[in-house]
């Protein structure tokens, strides 16, 4: 289903859909998602090239104080960020030849309970990656984007619940 009207659509405990009319709304939603994640979890970012995975990651990083450029780590596979005492790892597995390559770069050490891991192109790491707390599927919808969130764990459900709360779009810092 494509976005007919922009804004948030009804959600349940395990899913949520939101329409993002422009880049500013996309980044703002990423910031709200970042606050709801509270600096931990595993999030799979799915979507075709140009769907906005890196733009969403930029918003999540902004929520934790990062103000610099955010580029997709296509060639390095992972870009670690240490922000306000939090560890955020941004993965882009688009060029991953084999999921075992993640072992060789020491990625297993990055998946601790005290880290937030954002993973673009997670299907390339299938069988090696941990179960995500949340899967965010992005698609182009007119001039904007549509985001469909699906919780895979109880923590993912709690994140969707926080996002669904009326105050989740406001900056609480």
Any overview of this molecule?
This protein has helices spanning 23-37, 53-63, 101-104, 154-164; strands spanning 7-8, 15-20, 41-46, 78-83, 86-92, 115-120, 134-141, 144-151. It has a single domain, classed as 3-Layer(aba) Sandwich (Rossmann fold), CATH 3.40.50. The protein is globular, with a radius of gyration of 15 Å. Helix 1 (23-37) packs across helix 2 and helix 1 crosses helix 4 (154-164). It has an eight-stranded mixed sheet. It contains four helices and eight strands. Residues 169-173 have low confidence and may be disordered. With 173 residues, the chain is an alpha/beta fold.
Briefly say what this structure is.
With 173 residues, the chain is an alpha/beta fold. The chain has one domain: 3-Layer(aba) Sandwich (Rossmann fold). It has helices spanning 23-37, 53-63, 101-104, 154-164, and strands spanning 7-8, 15-20, 41-46, 78-83, 86-92, 115-120, 134-141, 144-151.
Q: Which regions contain 5 or more consecutive residues with pLDDT less than 50? A: 169-173
CATH superfamily: P-loop containing nucleotide triphosphate hydrolases
In total, the number of domains comes to 1
User: Under the CATH scheme, which architecture would be assigned?
Assistant: 3-Layer(aba) Sandwich
Helix count, DSSP H or I runs of 4 or more residues: 4
Shape: globular
Highlighted features:
single chain, 173 residues, alpha/beta, Rossmann fold, eight-stranded mixed beta sheet, 8 strands
Helix and strand topology:
Elements: E1 7-8, E2 15-20, H1 23-37, E3 41-46, H2 53-63, E4 78-83, E5 86-92, H3 101-104, E6 115-120, E7 134-141, E8 144-151, H4 154-164
Helix pairs in contact: 1-2, 1-4
């Amino acid at each position: 289903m494509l976005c007919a009207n922009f804004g948030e659509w009804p959600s349940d405990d395990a899913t949520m859909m939101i329409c993002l009319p422009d880049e500013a709304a996309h980044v703002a939603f990423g910031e709200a998602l970042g606050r709801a994640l509270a600096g931990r979890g595993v999030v799979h970012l799915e979507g075709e090239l140009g769907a906005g995975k890196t733009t969403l990651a930029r918003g999540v990083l902004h929520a934790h104080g990062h103000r610099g450029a955010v580029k997709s780590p296509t060639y390095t596979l992972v870009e670690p960020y240490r922000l306000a005492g939090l560890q955020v790892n941004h993965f882009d597995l688009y060029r991953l030849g084999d999921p075992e390559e993640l072992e060789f770069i020491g990625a297993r050490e990055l998946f601790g309970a005290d880290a937030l891991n954002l993973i673009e192109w997670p299907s390339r790491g299938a069988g090696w990656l941990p179960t995500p707390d949340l899967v965010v599927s992005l698609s182009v919808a007119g001039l904007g984007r549509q985001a469909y969130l699906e919780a895979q764990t109880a923590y993912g459900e709690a994140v969707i619940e926080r996002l669904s709360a009326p105050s989740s779009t406001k900056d609480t810092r």
